[in-house]
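**User:** You know discrete backbone vocabularies at least as well as I do. Would you mind producing a protein record, from residues through to fold? Write it directly below this note and I will take it from there.

**Assistant:**
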Amino acid sequence: MCIKMTEEQPKKRNWLKLLLYFIVLIFASAGLLYLFRHLGVMEEEFAPTLYLAVFGLSFLNSALIGVPVVPAMATMIAVAAEGDLVLTALIASLAGTLGEVTAYYAGYVGKRLIHLESAPGYTRLVGWMERHGPWGIFVMSIQPVVPVDIAGFVSGVARLPLWRFLLPCWAGKFPKYLLVCYLGDAFLRILPPFPLP
């Protein structure tokens, strides 16, 4: 017996996956915040280590092409809730932008290894990137749904100079991360206080 899937079923699954991802992110952030408060790691002497953790996890989150790292966002939100919100977003956006270099060079080198011209949508994506250039990268970086890796890959394939990819990428990531930190902090503040033993 063959069951036909309607177009709505994959869309519904994508929304459910996205919702599940955000629920995991909220619980992971709340758990990390509780852990940070419980262990007292938000003291002045531990702050550099936590910002370094935000940098490292944000870098990995972007460097691992197509693999979202939930602890990166959760750590960023938890550190922003107790530390400096703007500094946390700045560190995460710089690290995330540097991590996108892997997607850029994958496109740069991949063009020589694979003939992408025959791939579906390839010419359309390259055309869009060539038309919009830095603005296209900015839009891809600021929106939360489509991975920025695509912009990096296409920029590498199109041989866009690296700095012309990195600047609009950071310009999009910084306000996005600032908003995530702000909303995450606001959400964590409305949760009931964590009982500390």
